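Customer ticket, subject: "Can you confirm the structure for Probable prefoldin subunit 6?"

Message body: Hello, I'm evaluating your service for our small team and ran a test protein. I'd like someone to confirm that this is what the system normally returns, since I don't have a reference to compare against.
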Amino acid sequence: MVEEIQKKLQSEADTLRQIQKDYNKALIQRQQLDGQLNENIMVKKELDILKEENDVFKLIGPVLIKQQLCEAKHNVYKRMDYIKSELKRVDDLMSTLDKKLDSQRDVIDKLQQAFQQAQIKSSINQPKS
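Agent reply: Thanks for trying us out. I re-ran your input and got the following:
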């Protein structure tokens, strides 16, 4: 009985560790997306300062290519929309993983209590020498 609970407890602890790894991956991804969004906000602010007759260049590999201001703004807006949608997706994933972490901790707490009770019963029921 005690060994069964111990194996189940180990299995649930492994599951908890995996959920924590997934959460940490999502957190890192969120931080990267947040950084990208901030960069694009800065680019948008710079582009908003420019006038139509100003030259805008886009870096493609090692080459600067001339680009229309309206096209550059459009690309930045599209990129920001995409990053915002990815941020929402990652936030939803983190929320789901957070709930899984809470429920997994509850499962482990209950198993630990059952394990302790089983150990106590086992020590009481053992014949004394």
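A couple of notes from the result: The chain has a mean pLDDT of 93. The two ends are 22 Å apart (CA to CA). Feel free to reply with more questions.
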